[in-house]
Amino acid sequence: MMGGYGDVQLLRDDGKRLDGRAIDEMRPVEIKVGVLPAAQGSAWVKQGLNVAVCAVYGPMEAHPRKIQRQDRAVLDVRYNMAPFSTGDRIRPGFNRRAREISKVTAEALESVVLLERFPRSKIRVEIEILAAEAGTRCAGITAASMALADAGIPMRDLVVGIASGKIQDTVVLDLDKAEDNYGQADLPAGICPNTGELVFLQMDGDLSIDEYNLAMEYNYKAAAEIHEIMVAALAARYDGGEA
Amino acid sequence: MMGGYGDVQLLRDDGKRLDGRAIDEMRPVEIKVGVLPAAQGSAWVKQGLNVAVCAVYGPMEAHPRKIQRQDRAVLDVRYNMAPFSTGDRIRPGFNRRAREISKVTAEALESVVLLERFPRSKIRVEIEILAAEAGTRCAGITAASMALADAGIPMRDLVVGIASGKIQDTVVLDLDKAEDNYGQADLPAGICPNTGELVFLQMDGDLSIDEYNLAMEYNYKAAAEIHEIMVAALAARYDGGEA
Amino acid sequence: MMGGYGDVQLLRDDGKRLDGRAIDEMRPVEIKVGVLPAAQGSAWVKQGLNVAVCAVYGPMEAHPRKIQRQDRAVLDVRYNMAPFSTGDRIRPGFNRRAREISKVTAEALESVVLLERFPRSKIRVEIEILAAEAGTRCAGITAASMALADAGIPMRDLVVGIASGKIQDTVVLDLDKAEDNYGQADLPAGICPNTGELVFLQMDGDLSIDEYNLAMEYNYKAAAEIHEIMVAALAARYDGGEA
Amino acid sequence: MAAPVPNLLRQEIERLAADDKRIDGRGRWERRAVDLEVGLLYNAEGSAKVTWGGTVVYAGVKFELRTPWPDRPTQGSLMCGAELRPVAHVKYEPGPPSPESIELGRVVDRGIRESGCIDMESLCIVPGEKVWGVMIDIHVMSDGGNIFDACGLAAIAALRTAIVPAERFDVGEDHVLGVSSTPIMASFTRAGGRFVYDPCEEEELGGDERIHITLGDTEHLHSLQKGLKGAFTPAEFAEILDVARKHCAELRDLVASKEGN
Amino acid sequence: MAAPVPNLLRQEIERLAADDKRIDGRGRWERRAVDLEVGLLYNAEGSAKVTWGGTVVYAGVKFELRTPWPDRPTQGSLMCGAELRPVAHVKYEPGPPSPESIELGRVVDRGIRESGCIDMESLCIVPGEKVWGVMIDIHVMSDGGNIFDACGLAAIAALRTAIVPAERFDVGEDHVLGVSSTPIMASFTRAGGRFVYDPCEEEELGGDERIHITLGDTEHLHSLQKGLKGAFTPAEFAEILDVARKHCAELRDLVASKEGN
Amino acid sequence: MAAPVPNLLRQEIERLAADDKRIDGRGRWERRAVDLEVGLLYNAEGSAKVTWGGTVVYAGVKFELRTPWPDRPTQGSLMCGAELRPVAHVKYEPGPPSPESIELGRVVDRGIRESGCIDMESLCIVPGEKVWGVMIDIHVMSDGGNIFDACGLAAIAALRTAIVPAERFDVGEDHVLGVSSTPIMASFTRAGGRFVYDPCEEEELGGDERIHITLGDTEHLHSLQKGLKGAFTPAEFAEILDVARKHCAELRDLVASKEGN
User: How far apart are CA A106 and CA D229, in angstroms?
Assistant: First the structure.
């Protein structure tokens, strides 16, 4: 955000975006569950050219003891970008950005998983970004809630990760890479599709309060669409009898 | 020490030092205790332009178990320089110099704290250098013994940190930054003002045995002066009823 | 291996190697045990200009508990090159190469040590390379099995570390530094001299299956020679009554 | 420091909340006393100390000469880091940066960076060759609750009073670092079931969700962060945002009052 | 994923071995089904996904411009790394690279490097100044046994389908990375007292010795590695080597079938 | 290696001290036998092995070409490090450098550096561009007590016999590293209530304070360090210093006897 590239043209004369999308149109989303045989539950999310894969393990005994909670499970969440997922290779290992995203993703999921059902245990959620084209933290949150569902972990609601943003003083849904690099703001959110609650929220850049409200309206609209794809993916898994 | 800058003039024609001090005169010292509300005990020491702040926590249960001592408390001492405390920013994290100073400071304090009163427990001593102008390890030791006193930890004696050194073949008290950079020797000591014992001693550079004896004489003289300031600071704390 | 230096001449016109050795001749080997007073068992191996020293400690209680095995001892093996052991100084600390060699060395030794005699315990094997002239992992394995014997740890057999390789399309025994740098293949093996079994094997470069068989034949021949030196060193230790 | 009795404390906070009260007697949207001092520290090119209730925070600014990134040859850089060292509270352990300290540093960094208050072009000395790197380090010395707001305040105050040490680096005359606006953070925590502004240490023990909002001079949003476990509704957010506007404006005036000293 | 019952399982594997059978019904030298896909991942200059029984592995190739080593001014460089991240199995923990992952990466690396399939001279752009660094990263996503062979296959397939992104780096036109041969790894484990090819997860639970063999197009050996506790005889090795030749040839054809897609 | 029985051992040491005796039969100010060998190690440009009672220590010197620090364009650099690796004693664990090993390296380093025995200007090759970096690494192989003095001795002996490998780096002819004096360390520990010189392993088990003194050729002090818990008086220090002078002179002669071999 705010890279000082105000002169990059991101909207066409016909009001559409460079890739032909309308301002309130999200990139195509595909979702599959049960993709990793070694995991308890897993999911694969493709949003535009992003690919996020998530494995869930557990509930299992939490160790060392000092991380155990007497009244609930702990979620151990890692968000990781594969070295080949970005334009320039990134060195393996947990960087500051990944640690922050892991933390807020864990907190979003803790808000919906019925942790009190599994005292003293641990649930591991492993999010791997295999290809990154802006919006990976949102794709990762969607993948994580799908993998938890695939693992049969009880939840109050799913979580949909989705972002809107601002480019050329215009609020748009679901920024792609160029829009993220040269845009003016990004507002990623984690929305519970049934309750309408927010369990994840970040923002950077520059948004007036009215722009914030419009961006959030787009996020809610997209969350409903993605929710349908999620439900269909879960249904396909159990219809197919693969479990 | 021994930077090979023998031609830098550090004494004026009138025999005084560049900042006007006499050769056996220390920099102004200010001390306050009870400066950090979250700590069990705390102290702030300003010596010249050095600022050292210390927080003490405990005694508390020592864990993991393997660090416990059945017959006494362990002291967990950290000396740390803030990134902005020096001319060039220093990267956060514990470097070799800080580890050595932490070790010898801990050993100095262990020599006076009545550790046997608190078996199996731990006392944490956190020394933070916020501004460094030569002599921070000594200011840190003084701050630490004040913070321990403020926390009500029983001690055989206080410890005063103070250094003398050699510049232009002359022994002087309490080197400042230029004197430290271009001088010939530094002799920091930790002195118990009541017993007269040494619990901390380092030295580097070049000192004849006679020069060593004179430098140590200056150190003892200054320790008595600083001790008065320390006692006054503790008295002010309890008079003021802030505890 | 395969550095692309095919034009370096490593064989003389008389069929001998640059240092005068025949193609199936190994470098001189010297072995001593009981060289480190603080260790339970120790050995010093000089092979050519390589110097490998090994200390063994234990069996001792394995801690932390989670590394304990109910039915056997664990071997904790470290292979480390001293900073001054190589042409360019190497930074202290465990690098990827050292970790791999430590792993395969441990696995070789686990294949001969009677671990089941010491349930829940740990045996530490510390290999230090003080001078490196190609072949240090093999010298380290030989030193380790000698130090284990010196410590009185029961073993099914000793292990001899020895390598053959290929230079100028010719299979040769025991590559030295130039041969290792400019050669075509290296085949280090860990051979049990009594059973004839292999407990360690690596290879890189380019070897036809026939070349492999010849190289391994050389390795077995050398292992028998080194075994005699090992037995003599152990005998000297106990004859000398130094234990 | 009282021993934490989380369950009893939580019940007490809930009981008080039912009467619209808080554990330290404040109103729901009331702030604790804040004291700001600047320019205290030798060697820091800009510095600030914030005392905010029982919280004490220092920030220091340092400069270095850097080669610019090849794709941004005329831009300097800004780096903001926070350390939650064990000096600040019995709960902080030594070791590598915790997720909490990384989040703290990154949220403060985004609020300042994204406000655009520092023109990266103004940090250029020789295009493609030499630019200033500005580094703000925040040192939390005593955690008495709401360290996010205290750190944000210390950071912007240290920046707005910083002097670029051009003479020491032989690249011209010392000058004030140009900072064109004053982004301010306001933080809220759910305590007793409802959100409150400026949580104290006891209110943070509940561990319920926090919302951090950074507003610029024109009341635009520059950074948002929801932290910790919990969910909230858009209506709750709208109410909070309104409170944030008032407090950010007040604290912006406090910063202004310390400049030019 | 069944809970591991090592002792019972070991007995069952031994019982089956006495009848020359394996736990998943395969013959001793039989391979599981292998699926190979290439070019799947945006941003990777070459990529491959291998599904090998219950094992799933991705490999991605990236390029960077480097200054060559002073003693090899006309040579580029190759780097191959593998990560056994906790995504792949409940048994993998987060933390610094384990000895297992280091061994995996280095064995795959040696097989490719030592085959000479990439001419380091072909990676030179300006001698002494600018060469390509080729980096293959292998990401194990699901460990269902025999990850070594799956990683080796993914790595060489990603390399053989990689495009050198010269345009993006302003050093000419994009072109295929020249890879002159197809080194393939074949791995064997002792299970039930004898060696088997392509061990499944249950067969690996025994923890007995493994042998990894990399063969080039001409059936020369390029890399050998014995892993884990255990001893073997030269005769056993000779038998294994023969099996390896057949399977390496088959998998080499599989890679070829995906090229030029 | 006897199992440590600290309490009984401490009592025994105290009992002996009352009769002015030591656990290994030595007098209070007596030294154990010291053997010094130099030039043993291929690849090290200078090397020494010290066997000091049950303590065995190697030191090796390496050289590298460096760019000088901008503020000292005509000066090379010296770096001295010590490793207390787990090879040396059952009490040493693997892991990052311990405070003990850092202190050891820094105390040895200061004794050599501050004596001025190496003229940093003599390490300059091209002012502002190219200087020598001299690196002494000390490897403790067996800790039988008083490793400080053994490490100090090994380091200065390795330095005084080191050859600058100028030919290998293409900057002239190989030559002796000029080392103008021979700083020697002498260490004392409180055992049985009084100080003793050259503590053995058993005397160190008490864990009482140590004093390390480095003296130069003219008996000037170049480094002091008090380590471990404990207090001492100026009078005790004066007595120790006198003993140090005698032993440092003896060991300085031992170093001299190995030079030019």
Answer: 8
Is residue D157, in this structure, part of any structural domain at all? Answer: yes
The answer to whether residue D85 neighbours chain B at the CB level (below 8 Å) is yes
Judge: D226–A201 Cβ closer than 8 Å, yes or no: yes
Residue F156 lies in a domain: yes
Neighbours of chain A (3+ CB pairs under 8 A): D, E
Contact (CB<8Å) B206/F222 = yes
Residue D21 lies in a domain: no
Cα angle value D142/D143/D146 (rounded, 5°): 135
The C-alpha of F50 sits at a distance from chain C's nearest C-alpha, in angstroms, of 12
Whole-structure pTM value: 0.95
Q: F with C: 3 or more CB pairs under 8 Å?
A: yes
Measure CB to CB from residue C197 to each of E110, E222, E231 and give the nearest one: E231
The count of C-alpha atoms lying within 13 angstroms of the C-alpha of D82, restricted to the half-sphere facing its C-beta, is: 29
Tokens of C87: 């042409």
The nearest CA of chain E is from the CA of A210 a distance in Å of: 35
Q: How far is D62 from chain B (nearest CA, A)?
A: 6
Say yes or no: A123 contacts chain E, CB-CB below 8 A: no
DSSP string, C91-158: -SS--HHHHHHHHHHHHHHHTTB-GGGSTTEEEEEEEEEEE-SS-HHHHHHHHHHHHHHHTT--BSS-
Average pLDDT over residues A30-57: 98
Question: Helix or strand or coil: residue E149?
Answer: helix
Does residue C194 surpass a pLDDT of 60? yes
Give Cα C22 to chain centroid, integer Å. Answer: 22
Do residues B26 and B162 make contact, with C-beta atoms less than 8 angstroms apart? Answer: yes
- Percent share of chain F, pLDDT over 90: 92
- Residues of chain D short of pLDDT 70, as ranges, are 1-5, 261
Long-range contacts of D171-179 (CB under 8 A, 24+ apart): D171/D65, D171/D125, D171/D130, D172/D125, D177/D46, D177/D61, D177/D118, D177/D134, D178/D118, D178/D119, D178/D122, D179/D117, D179/D118
Residue F111's domain is classified under what CATH number? 3.30.230.70
Q: Does F121 touch chain B (CB under 8 A)?
A: yes
Question: Model confidence at E261, in pLDDT bands (50, 70, 90)?
Answer: low
For domain C29-238, give the CATH number.
Answer: 3.30.230.70
List pLDDT tens digits, range F123-132: 999 999 999 9
Q: Is B107 within 8 Å of chain F by CB?
A: yes
Tokens found for residue C29: 């080997």
The total domain count for chain E is: 1
Q: Could you say which residues from 135 to 194 on chain C have a Cβ atom under 8 Å away from some Cβ of chain E?
A: 185, 187, 192
- Residues D60/D63/D67/D68 CA torsion (nearest 10 deg): 60
pLDDT digits over F136-186, tens only? 999 999 999 999 999 999 999 999 999 999 999 999 999 999 999 999 999
Judged by average pLDDT, the poorest of B102-106, D7-11, D194-198, E207-211 is: D7-11
Helix axes F99-115, B96-110, angle to 10 degrees: 110
Given a cut of 70, whether residue A5 has pLDDT beyond it is no
* Residues of chain F contacting C40 with CB distance shorter than 8 Å: 1, 90
* Residue-range domain boundaries for chain B: 29-238
Position E60 in a domain: yes
In single-letter form, the type of residue at position F220 comes to H
ipTM, interface predicted TM-score of the complex: 0.94
- Rounded to an integer, the average pLDDT of A133-147 is 98
Token pair for A136: 């990976």
Question: Which chains form contacts with chain F, at 3 or more CB pairs under 8 Å?
Answer: B, C
F110 is in which domain, residue-wise? 32-258
- Closest to B216 (Cβ–Cβ): which among F113, F229, F234? F234
